[in-house]
Design goal:
By secondary structure, the protein is α+β, with helices and mostly antiparallel strands. It has nine helices and six strands. It has two domains: 81 residues; 284 residues, Outer membrane efflux proteins (OEP) (Up-down Bundle), CATH 1.20.1600.10. It is elongated and about 145 Å long.
Length: 436
């Protein structure tokens, strides 16, 4: 008999072990790594950054010559007649005419008021803008992954709290039933205990639903199958050593939104350089090789051909264009002024966001300590109340109140940790300093 019991026990533990290990234990580091590799918006941002990189070439800036090859072959069949100066005439039906031209032409702009160099610098700034947008996308998505992940940790803690209260409610129901069976309690006490147990079980089911939906959302951020099951770590670790001045200094250097505005101003300045370049002459070198061949059934010349090189240059300068040059330069200067205003505005927005988020962060840190103390007090109160309930010295209402106080304290403590973590993530995202 002992052997059978031991065998069944081993099977039970094996099944439990297999069930636990069937779920992947997903760490926040692994979640961020998966998101960087799989997230669709990050992939699109990476490709857009690569497009900006690809566009940075001297050819795209107009510094290289262009070569064009062409061929033209024209054929016709006509009825033709000719009358010469001496009065004689000639005619021919179905006269065939052929013309063949082919060649290669070369063009090279050797001077355009330095516009091509400003264009190349502008392409480089656009490349930096693409990198900044990629960084912004990564920060936002990694922030979402962190928020969704720690929301699951919070919900997991709340599940544990609800599991605990259900155990207590079951103990209360058992005690009520025992007391009723020996005539020390009324049926009403048993019914109240059953109703409270049912309420706790409903709350647990709702929490399980929320937890399952949270997993689906995190899987979405990780761009993987929503049915993938996993567990998260049990605790939330909050960085409680953030300093507002340090965060503001980092934000001035690393915040993608501010960085983009600074780059936009540089792009506007380079646009002004290109506009001013139109005041200078444009000089182009030209060259080419051409072959021409013509055949005609009627006329003084039945066939002709030519081939050879050609070369030269052309120059042009804007003398007067209806004052459009002056207007374009004025508009470009206003764009630079707008870019500077946008930088100042972004600075103000950034400092405001950092200041308010930091104040929320400090409040949440204080709440963590307060709610942690509340959990300890509520647990002590529940233990004392449970002992008194067992010996029948307090009412079921007092017991239920102590039970709910403990559960609510656990939930508030979990929420405080989660809110503090969200504040930390928000501050680091604004500072451009999320570690991944």
């Amino acid at each position: 008999m002992n052997t059978k019991i031991l065998f069944r026990t081993l099977i039970f533990f094996f099944l439990c072990f297999a069930k636990v290990n069937a779920q992947e234990v997903l760490t926040i580091e692994d979640a961020m790594k998966i998101a960087l590799e799989n997230n669709f918006e990050i992939k699109i941002a990476k490709n857009n950054s690569k497009i900006s990189d690809t566009n940075v070439t001297i050819g795209n800036a107009g510094m290289l010559p262009t070569a064009t090859a062409s061929i033209t072959d024209n054929n016709s069949v006509t009825n033709s007649s000719q009358t010469r100066q001496d009065g004689t005439s000639t005619s021919l039906n179905n006269a065939k005419n052929n013309s063949l031209n082919y060649g290669v032409s070369l063009g090279w702009t050797v001077f355009d008021g330095m516009k091509m160099f400003a264009k190349l610098d502008q392409l480089k700034e656009l490349q930096k803008l693409g990198d900044s947008e990629l960084k912004r996308t990564v920060l936002v998505k990694i922030g979402q992954v962190n928020s969704a992940y720690y929301d699951l940790v919070q919900q997991q803690q709340q599940l544990a709290a609800l599991d605990t209260t259900i155990v207590i409610s079951k103990q209360r129901l058992t005690l009520a039933q025992n007391r009723f069976s020996i005539g020390k309690a009324s049926k009403l006490e048993v019914l109240n205990a059953q109703v409270d147990l049912n309420s706790d079980q409903v709350a647990l089911l709702r929490q399980k639903e929320s937890y399952a939906n949270g997993k689906i959302l995190l899987n979405q951020y990780l761009a993987r199958d929503p049915k993938i099951n996993f567990t998260v770590t049990k605790h939330v670790t909050v960085d409680n050593k953030l300093v507002l001045v340090d965060l503001m200094d980092l934000a001035q250097k690393q915040n993608p939104a501010l960085e983009s505005q600074i780059i936009n101003k540089r792009i506007a300045e380079l646009q002004l350089k290109q506009v001013k370049a139109d005041r200078y002459p444009i000089i182009n070198l030209t060259s080419g090789y051409n072959f021409n061949e013509n055949q005609s059934s009627l006329g003084f010349t039945s066939s002709s051909s030519s081939k050879g090189f050609n070369y030269g240059f052309n120059a042009s300068i804007n003398v007067f264009d209806g004052l459009n040059q002056h207007r374009n330069e004025k508009v470009a200067k206003l764009q630079i002024e707008n870019s500077q205003i946008a930088i100042e505005q972004q600075n103000m927005i950034l400092n405001t966001q950092l200041s308010t988020a930091f104040q929320t962060y400090l409040t949440n840190l204080e709440l963590i300590n307060l709610e942690e103390d509340n959990v300890v007090i509520a647990k002590q109160n529940l233990d004392i109340t449970l002992d008194k309930f067992r010996i029948g010295t307090i009412t079921t209402l007092d017991f239920r109140t102590a039970q709910l106080n403990y559960v609510n304290a656990k939930v508030r403590y979990s929420n405080a940790q989660y809110e503090a973590k969200l504040s930390e993530i928000a501050l680091k995202e604004l500072a451009g300093n999320i570690n991944f």
